[in-house]
Design a protein that fits this description.
alpha+beta, nine-stranded mixed sheet, five-stranded mixed sheet, globular
Length: about 650
């Protein structure tokens, strides 16, 4: 078999296999061309999910008949004026899309430039190009693609149903619409049924972008989004991130745009996890849309056939910027919780004629179970199994004859398994955390016996505070507080859990992680690349209490581990770190375990459900919540309070 040059049409069909794997991929290329042409209005029509018809119409600058003929030639483009692949300022740049699509379909281009007397049309059928001819069309361009893959029928077998292909097309449109809020987008399906319609958004960039994100990601996100605006070393990051209590069971609502281009990058996944690790369980994911702007020379967009992946010149700088900006926004949110919590509370109000308790009964009324933050059922909660194990420590105690057990003034358990010191401060086996928990429990609370009555006049000064003045406690777990324009219901255990956890984190940052030397240093064998990745981060891991040294090719020796982890499988921990460094570019396993220990201690060391509080204790807890970062959710991502506005309450009772 001798070497030969393939026919041009076959070359185009091979390129189509890379660029146009399904109708949605063709749609992406055509809409990007429209945006590059300066379009402010893009209308898309699909038939059978784009298999029989895919039409894209725009109001861009249009093309002359000479440009039409050139546009369907391979590698013909106007987007690389200086022939520099590292200075790309447009969405497209390869000049492959139109000839590739035309080689596997029946395609017709119709275009008219401003000032031209008429439009011109050109058809390409299975790679065979016709001649430009006069046509009737307004200013702009329309591309009609019919019978996609008719020239390569084997590809049709790999397409999904029309409904699924339409869903893929919609996802592409939504991503492009988020990147360009100044452009109007519409998508219609069979029988001209409207699938989406996003009018152009007016206002400054942030306002317009938030409106468009609300249209795509939902009103809940728009109402609970935190603005992101940060810059570092010439790289600017803007966008919006949802509060932690608004989350999902997957990462499908996390979007990254680089210089206006929607991309998928594992760097985003690791950075988001690092920023939200103190607020969400590992199986819950926040909602966000982030927009990176940097010099074209600092990012390579020519690393993927579909241009959906990029490579940064300095990924560490980009990741640090994302993590820092998200943490700053979350810190600025204070004790804010998602408005969906209040919405769910209002939606759970009994319908007229429904008996109290209903079929669910009192046992179903755990805080947050009714879908808060996007949870559909108890089993879908963040860290559900771990939470269930902790409910024994949270549940009300059956002790009707004796005094209330547990609460603010109990000394927390010594989780290190050692007896408490004679001075009552507890053993220091946990690096002082038992004492920190005790201080957190006692700090700020007056010593008084529980009372069922609250003098309203004494607490009037608290009404103007964000969480208001305590008015009572119900079911020995929920604090009812009055604000100037509504009321607040607080889960006392979840709220105090966050307070204790934040104090433990502060102590950890101040005193550092105490180490425990291994009697016999443990050698862990890895592949050479994995061992090198871990060894390169040795200083970072040492700050967290894990001392690692290289021990020959493909091996590491562990000499010290964090004392607060107790008995730990050292080899498994190091392998987890190596895997995460390979996948995400960072090793979160060690920090996750440290924070898990702190969260467990905070959960068990907090005021328990069933503890009756008096007015001073309840108001002290509310004031501490207002002063504690991230007190709107507990360590598992559940809300700590629900706020109901007076207007909503009056509507519920028919007063408005």
């Amino acid at each position: 078999m001798s070497l030969r040059i393939l026919p041009q049409n076959l070359i185009n069909q091979i390129a189509a296999g890379e660029v146009v794997e399904r109708p949605a991929a063709a749609l992406k290329e055509l809409v990007e061309n429209a945006l590059d042409a300066g379009a402010k209005k893009v209308d898309v029509a699909l038939r059978e999910g784009g298999r029989t018809l895919l039409s894209v119409t725009d109001d861009g600058r249009g093309m002359s008949p000479e440009e039409l003929a050139l546009a369907v030639e391979r590698h013909a483009t106007s987007k690389l004026p200086d022939d520099d692949l590292f200075n790309i300022a447009f969405m497209g740049f390869r000049g492959e899309a139109l000839p590739s699509i035309g080689s596997v379909s029946r395609m017709r281009l119709t275009s008219r430039t401003k000032g031209a007397e008429n439009a011109w049309s050109l058809s390409v059928e299975g790679g065979l190009k016709g001649e430009p001819e006069p046509a009737a069309h307004p200013f702009g361009t329309r591309v009609e693609v019919r019978d996609l893959f008719y020239a390569t029928p084997a590809r049709l077998k790999f397409l999904k149903t029309a409904r699924t292909e339409q869903m893929y097309a919609r996802e592409i449109m939504e991503r492009l619409a988020m990147a360009r809020p100044d452009v109007s987008f519409s998508l219609s399906g069979d029988n001209n049924k409207s699938i989406l319609n996003y009018p152009a958004c007016a206002g400054d960039l942030f306002d317009a972008r938030l409106k468009r994100l609300g249209a795509v990601m939902g009103r809940e996100f728009q109402d609970n989004a935190l603005q992101i605006d940060a810059e570092r070393e010439g790289i600017r990051l803007t966008g919006y991130a949802g509060v932690p209590t608004l989350n999902r069971g997957n990462a499908q609502m996390q979007f990254l745009f680089v210089n206006g281009r929607p991309v998928k990058d594992r760097l985003l996944q690791g950075a988001v996890r690092g920023a939200y690790q103190d607020f969400l369980a590992r199986d819950r994911h926040p909602l966000l849309a982030l927009f990176l702007e940097l010099e074209p020379r600092d990012v390579d967009v020519n690393v993927h056939p579909g241009k959906t992946e990029v490579r940064f010149r300095d990924p560490g700088l980009v990741r640090g910027l994302i993590v820092g900006a998200l943490k700053h926004a979350l810190a600025g949110a204070g004790h804010r919780a998602s408005t969906t919590v209040a919405d769910m509370a209002m939606g759970a109000v009994r319908r007229e004629g429904e008996l109290p308790g209903g079929a669910a009964g009192y046992g179903a009324a755990r805080p947050g179970i009714s879908g808060y933050g996007g949870y559909g059922s108890a089993s879908s909660y963040p860290g559900h199994q771990a939470i269930e194990r902790n409910y024994a420590a949270q549940a009300p105690l059956d002790n009707p004859r004796g005094p209330a057990i547990g609460g603010l003034f109990d000394r927390p358990r010594d989780f290190g398994g050692h007896p408490s010191g004679a001075d009552g401060t507890g053993s220091d086996a946990n690096g002082g955390f038992a004492g920190a928990a005790a201080a957190a429990l006692a700090g700020g609370y007056a010593s008084a016996s529980p009372s069922a009555r609250i003098d309203v006049t004494d607490d009037a000064r608290f009404v103007d505070h964000p969480l208001g003045a305590a008015r009572g406690q119900v079911h020995a777990n929920y604090i009812i507080a009055q604000t100037r324009d509504g009321l607040v219901i607080v889960d006392q255990h979840a709220a105090h859990e966050r307070i204790v956890y934040e104090r433990m984190k502060a102590d950890l940052a101040e005193t550092g992680v105490k180490r425990q030397g291994l009697l016999l240093p443990e050698v862990v064998e890895l592949d050479e690349s994995g061992a090198e990745r871990v060894a390169d981060r040795a200083e970072e891991f040492a700050e967290l209490g894990l001392v690692i040294e290289p021990f020959g090719p493909g091996a590491l020796v562990v000499r010290e581990v964090p004392a607060m982890l107790g008995k730990v499988d050292v080899a498994a921990l190091v392998r987890d770190l190596a895997d995460e460094l390979a996948e995400l570019g960072q090793g979160m396993a060690l920090k996750d375990r440290l924070m898990h220990v702190c969260a467990t201690m905070a959960c068990h060391g907090s005021v328990r459900s069933g503890r009756k509080l008096n007015a001073d204790e309840m108001n002290a807890l509310l004031r501490q919540m207002e002063a504690t970062p991230h007190s709107g959710q507990c360590n598992h991502g559940r809300p700590t309070y629900v706020e109901l506005k007076l207007n909503d309450i009056e509507k519920m009772f028919g007063r408005r």
